[in-house]
Amino acid sequence: MIEVKNLVKKYGTHLAVDHLDFQLEPGRIYGFLGPNGAGKSTTMNIMTGYLGATEGQVVIDGHDILKEPEEAKKHIGYLPELPPLYMDMTVSEYLEFAAELKELPRKEREDSVQKVMDITRLNDVQFRLIKNLSKGYRQRVGLAQAILGFPDIIILDEPTVGLDPKQIIEIRELIRDMAKEHTVILSSHILAEVREVCDYIMIISKGKLVASDTPENLEHLMAGQNSLEIETKAKPEDVRRILKEVSGIERMEFDRTKDATTYAKIEVKSGSGREQDLREAVFLAFAEAGCPLLMLKASRASLEEVFMELTQAEEVAADAGDL
To answer: Residue 13, SS3?
Structure first.
């Protein structure tokens, strides 16, 4: 549905987007994740035709965004980080105006406006001036204009920035609802948000795509840092002796808790975490030793840890290249 091929964007000597290549399939919520200044918004602006690329190509449903902009844009709804709202219009006036700009057939405009207000739950404020709405409702108005005409692809750039927790939850629910009938691309630097709503994540750093996979598989990238946590009444030296019988352990860390139990963190050897779950082996080892476990749980690297590892590695590589 969307193909990005060797995409490059330069601002003078600054390389904002560095030879990006990826393909997005229908029926998913994609998270476009990266630190501030990583090139997320620039890439989205090129994908939607708001910016021209220095090099490369963006193909939307078979239409090149540069060579066939009108046809390509018919398949895209876009919500920029700052929604393009006219504050002195009412909600219904603005959406009717947006429908006209999108060249929706006149006989379909009223029904289309009503449908998007139903989806975004704007009916109660449709006759109010946009300038008198809360930020959360303004964001809903921006979402409503993005889905007017019901394009195949909805692109959302930082849709929850500046919202309070209740408004964030409401916008996330709207995104999930939209994903039932649209492909959604969500840009954010908020890891919890991306983890919560996205089926597939792309991490960009310094204008480069450094990872692309499901949230679960991205967390597996840090397999060498996967670990088990256990708690037992055995002494640390006994725990170490029991665990010597378990293969696949890189190292152990011990901490004596106040109620005389031993807490241990077991680091799994690199490369074995994804294929091998050591919980059963650890449980059986303690059972055979007649030593009960009070706690046994797996602890995988979080998406935050994966993000920091990948983006920091890219920054180090970029800095080294400048030397």
So the answer is: coil
